[in-house]
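Cross-check.
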Amino acid sequence: MIKSPLHDSKAFLLAIHTPDIPERTVAESLQELASLCQSVGGVVVGEMVQTRPRFHPGTLFGSGKLDEIKAALTAHQADMVLLDHNLSPSQGDNLERILGVLVLDRTQLILEIFGQNARTHEARLQVELAQLLYMLPRLVGLWAHLDRERGGISGSKGTGEKQINIDRTLIRNRIAQLRKELRHLAQERKTQKKRRANCFRVSLVGYTNAGKSTLMNRLTDAGVKVENRLFATLDATTRAMERTNRPHVLLTDTVGFINRLPHELVASFRSTLEVLGEADLLLQVVDVADSGYPEQIATTIRVLEDIGAQNVPRLLVFNKVDRVEDRVDLLLARKAYPDALFISAVRDDVAPLRARVLEFFERSMLTTPLQLAYADYPELSKIYRWGRVDEVTYTEDGIHLVVTATPANLERIRAKTRVWQPTATGPA
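Predicted model, tokenized:
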């Protein structure tokens, strides 16, 4: 993977605490910003939080605090500032001019991480779309300084305005092209889904770095690359949970979420995230060793609501129990979430989870006796493919079966084979 241009940068983190935000939330968000910085190879050298009644419209911080920040940047030899807030182009421009270093906001940093981690063609298209969606409404701020510096002629368009119109057209054309390509890829996925129509679909969902990919590897033979960094997985990977299982269950690993996930990314990755709304069951993976997991659970639910997947049944899976230092914390979590499962994916103790998933689908399946003539013996393979054969008895009048399958697959068996109910006098 190509190193980020932010690699080895010395970053100073900044945040503002307003009355409507709890102090703990600010601290947790700054900690998350530090993790984001480290994901691109940056080094956090310091941080500062200012308590204000509201953001300063031009620079977020007051002039006195900016002098203090500038002195801290010099003392820590910082060459980059990361803001735990989103900036307008003019605010970013003002801060860079005053502080004399590169200034990035939270969304820009997340977009940089996604850009670095995009490995497949589709992921690269989605990230580029998100970056352009972020850039488009900011063109005015990006170019306005040209007219201010050169001075526009009264009654005529300035250089900046002309450039804005050119750039806006180019960006909109590229956005349209990207959306067209992504729709084509989404259509290809729908074709693949039709081939898997006789399978149950389960999707892993949750906060980034909660251990979804490790769990995916434990439940399947996916061989998904596991890395201890944020947003290591951007592409949906689907594998059979266990090929011997009846019912067949397909498991999909998806991109992780984060607090204040940029809406541009949600919009550009919508076609990939549609798999969550189409799932029969969601496994919401939670890092129980992270003290901020309640907010991470809430963040995941908010994103599910944004993409219309809030009504899909969910099973909470608390992962990384082996990393919880205080056993009391684990007991409290079990008490607060009595229906959840607590596992350690790295210890391979996923048998209870596998059993719970199969049990969930068993409840929607039907068991029925069927009979097949010996002359139609080759059709037995279809029955095994579409259902679970619990019993097989060979008698003089044919093959007697007890089959468990979904209602849809039972109808498929009846329609595509020459089975009949044993109470009948012969094949239907």
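The chain has four domains: 10-114, 119-188, 199-362, 366-416. The first strand starts at residue 10 and ends at 17. Passed to J.P. for a second look.
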